[in-house]
Amino acid sequence: MNVNGKMVAALTAALMMSACSGGTEPGNVAGEGNGVSLRNLADTEVAAPAGDRNFRLQGTLIPTPSDLQSRHFLLRERRAVGGNIIAILREERGDRIAYARTEVDCARRLFHVLGVGPSRATAEVATVYDGPLRPMAGLPLREELGAFICERAGTPLAKG
């Protein structure tokens, strides 16, 4: 196994352990036990130093009044075969960045995380078990991200 393969294996193991920690910090779904915290992703081992912030995809800043410590950017979104929206997000906090691939069902107000990583490419191919699509209700950051993603995709988030 080459160095990159070992790094990806270690990252995947760390993600699986943190994803299954069962914490109830903001951004996790209390009682689910498999939530991935988007609110604190840049504070985890998944994040990387931001470097010079000369990103190939700058993205669009998402207003997130529930998380004033981080900046969240929508890099791209696409409609999946079933109609849900797959979005790539970047979280910046201080000198750290992390990426997430999410899925949103705009009509049913459901959201989950498909993958996370220290780079956009890693998040696009990584798999993290965040559980099935589940309601955003009571999770302000996920509601803010979901509403922005759905609006950008031309399918406004259904009323809650």
UniProtKB/TrEMBL annotation:
Q: Does the keyword Signal apply?
A: yes
Question: So which domain of life are we looking at?
Answer: Bacteria
Matching entries from PROSITE patterns are given as: PROKAR_LIPOPROTEIN
Task: Alphabetically list the UniProt keywords.
Answer: Signal
User: Is Signal set as a keyword in this record?
Assistant: yes
- The stretch of residues making up the signal peptide is 1-21
Q: What is this protein called?
A: Lipoprotein
Task: Report the source organism.
Answer: Sphingomonas cynarae
Organism taxonomic ancestry: Bacteria, Pseudomonadati, Pseudomonadota, Alphaproteobacteria, Sphingomonadales
